[in-house]
């Protein structure tokens, strides 16, 4: 079984070396790392090419004019040759032994379609800030809480056949392309949660996750618009939409919002860094 890691990159010369090292130094080595550079104007490509010389059988670099992160992700997907796919942004890192743990779990249960886990939050210099723990996957919870809240994009691995069966990432999405993709990829799928830190998410000012949190900013407004589309499309897929049509959706909305917070409280997710 082979793991394919997809990484879109744009002007992250400061972080890309560490990102690549976190992939090529994994204990499980039947891997490929597909990096699509989206027209970087910094030294990113030169750095990637140096690592490509060291790991020619692992690293595949594809260059394109600047078309955006979602376009780069789709080019990555089109070039995947492995059985299992993981998405790692060019400012993030995988934790040690993540790939071996993932492969072991897929091998032990052939019915698993995807595996999700936890992440660590690190600062721009790689210092640990806190741990983000997740819950067992529940599609309905994703609908009402947002799929980006229940699945971390760098802490999910899925079988390639899932991607083969749906369309690519929606390139009209600039910020919530991950949530939109999970809403289709994970519908009616068997998803296993592992209480294990798979990756380190880097918290820095240029990260899209940070930009879209700034209230009433252009990025925030666009992200909210995209999330409304995702909710509308995914809500139609679940049986609750038949019993709570129109504005009655607020009732299951409040239930799943409350349920998630209660479960996180019960599991001590809100207390302490570890």
Characterization of the model:
The chain is of the alpha/beta class. It has one domain (3-266): Spore Coat Polysaccharide Biosynthesis Protein SpsA, Chain A (Alpha-Beta Complex), CATH 3.90.550.10. It is built from 12 helices and 9 strands. The chain has helices spanning 16-24, 44-54, 69-78, 98-108, 139-145, 147-150, 160-164, 177-185, 208-211, 218-235, 240-243, 250-266; strands at residues 3-9, 31-38, 59-64, 84-87, 93-94, 114-122, 128-132, 156-159, 191-202. Strands 1, 2, 3, 4, 5, 6, 7, 8 and 9 form a 9-stranded mixed β-sheet that branches.
- Spans of at least 5 consecutive residues whose pLDDT stays below 50 are none
**How many structural units, i.e. domains?**
1
Q: Helical percent range? A: 25-40%
Tally of strands: 9
Indicate the CATH class: Alpha Beta
Main beta sheet strand tally, sense and closure: 9 strands, mixed
**Rg, nearest Å:** 18 Å
Q: What spatial form do the alpha-carbon principal axes imply? A: globular
Q: What series of H and E elements makes up the topology?
A: EHEHEHEEHEEHHEHHEHHHH
Give the CA-CA distance, first to last residue: 33 Å
Number of H- or I-type helical stretches: 12
- CATH H level, superfamily name: Spore Coat Polysaccharide Biosynthesis Protein SpsA, Chain A
Estimated share of beta-strand residues: 15-25%
CATH topology: Spore Coat Polysaccharide Biosynthesis Protein SpsA, Chain A
For the record, the CATH architecture stands as: Alpha-Beta Complex
